[in-house]
Amino acid sequence: MASSAKGIAEGEGMNQQNQGWNNLLIEMDESARKIDHLVNQTHQVSETQEPSEPCATEDVICSKPTVNVYETEDTVIVLAEIAGIGPEDVIISLESDQLIIKGQRRYVMPEEIQVFHRMEIWLGPFSLEVPLPEGISAVAAEASYHAGFLEVRLPKQTTGRVQHLTPTYIHLKGMTWS
């Protein structure tokens, strides 16, 4: 009788162990499906999404480019790393007291690719909102792009009275791409 109880207990232990493995495999399968969905979404978005509203829905995941913001005596300078972006794929605007940079890194995957061994370069939409100090003059703002960096220069107002930026978008002029 004792040996049969021992066998039943061992069988239950095996069932619990198998159930644990089954749960782990189910979780791994769900994770793999989520990863596949993200890769497919990035691929679809990189080919079809327009840069005007790259992060308009909760279904679209956006990256945030790395950025440096610094100030000189008469200018606030925002430097964003956006390598591989063409001028048609980025919108730079001022709204309230924020600089907004939105865009799309496009890359069409060659059909002959069978396996990715490493994929670190973000493809798809990006969006960045940079809070600005008071006293920025939107009229003379300039943007330039060189060697993968977007530089936006925002002159400070020279008058003593601080004027807030209007809450409408102002597309920056003076965009040069080199």
Tell me what you see in this structure.
It is a single chain. By secondary structure, the protein is α+β, with helices and mostly antiparallel strands. The chain has a domain at 67-177: Immunoglobulin-like. It contains 1 helix and 9 strands. The strands form 2 sheets. A 5-stranded mixed beta sheet has the order 1-2-7-6-9, with no helix packed on it. The longest helix has 47 residues, at 2-48. The N and C termini lie far apart (86 Å).
Specify the CATH class of the domain at 67-177: Mainly Beta
Query: What is the overall number of helices?
Result: 1
What's the overall average pLDDT, rounded?
A: 74
How are the strands of the largest sheet arranged?
A: 1-2-7-6-9
Query: What is the alpha-carbon Rg in Å?
Result: 26 Å
Number of strands: 9
Strand proportion, as a percent range, falls in 25-35%
The N- to C-terminal Cα distance equals 86 Å
Any guess at the CATH architecture of the domain at 67-177? Sandwich
Shape: elongated
Low-confidence stretches: 42-54, 166-174
Q: How much helicity do the residues have?
A: 25-40%
Element order: H for helix, E for strand: HEEEEEEEEE
Oligomer category? single chain
- Structural class label: alpha+beta
Largest sheet: 5 strands, mixed
Classify the fold: give the CATH topology of the domain at 67-177.
Immunoglobulin-like
Question: Key features?
Answer:
Immunoglobulin-like; 28% strand; single chain; 178 residues
